[in-house]
Amino acid sequence: MGIEARQARQPWILLSPALTAVTLLLFVPLAFIVVYSFWLRTATGADQAGFYLDNWREALGDAFYRDILLSTLRIAAITTVVCALVGYPAAYFIARSRGNKAILLLLLMLPFWISYIIRTMSWINILGVSGALNWLLQTIGFVDEPVQMLYNETTVILGLVHFLLPFMILNVYVALEGIDVSLEDAACSLGSTRWQAFREVTLPLSLPGLAAGGLLCFVLSAGTYITPLVLGGPRDAMFANLVFEAVITQLNWPLGSALSLMLLAILGSLVLIYNHFLGMGQLMKGLG
């Protein structure tokens, strides 16, 4: 009996460092945020402890926050669709390449070696009034004066696609790599064209990877604040920018906590829906 008890405890002993880290770094701060969301910001600037619903009434009832939230979800959806349309052909090309697959994967991973902030700010040097693209357009005589291409929603989406495209490609690549190429050849031998074989065989089998990439792109884009802060204008703020403004600029931790929990609840619901229908295994493969 003692041996069986020790064997039953061994997995928990091995998991204890990871569980301790997750508890201290995730669940404990999250508990503080939940508690803070019910505190009250007084006129003197101090936080009054207690159980108040003022922050939640403001966060849920103010049309300003609702409009920003809907705009954030719309931008995240557009970003996800663009990443899927651009990333799937690239992932298919890498998965079906012969001999240079390792080089292509290395090139795909190169952006992760550069800071996300530096990659985002590099678009200023490309699309700015004195940037490379304006210089090229003026050099070839396409425009007479510099064109304002920064600080709008399109630039924000471009920056998000630049950031999230490798995640989409990797997830789709993992799904395509697990599909036997002979299935397409078998479909072609039965009279299908290459396009029909792809549409009827490869595409349906790769949908879990596409869904996993879509989930990652949507969640990460909806929760970002760096890209709209650097590349967006005053009207292009996303919901995470409101949280940043409330916590860092206004030092209003109770309201910022309520706003962050709103966004967490929505994105968490999407993850739960994905897990219900597809499971988290495919997502873990893409992250690995």
Description:
This protein has a two-stranded antiparallel sheet. The chain has a single domain (62-287), classed as Orthogonal Bundle (MetI-like fold), CATH 1.10.3720. It starts with a helix and ends with a helix. It has 288 residues and is an all-alpha fold. A hairpin with a 5-residue loop joins β1 (40-41) and β2 (47-48). It has helices at 2-36, 54-61, 63-95, 101-109, 116-127, 132-139, 153-177, 182-189, 194-222, 226-231, 239-249, 253-277, 281-287, and strands spanning 40-41, 47-48. The longest helix is centred in the N-terminal third of the chain and has 35 residues, at 2-36. It is built from 13 helices and 2 strands; from the N terminus they run αββαααααααααααα.
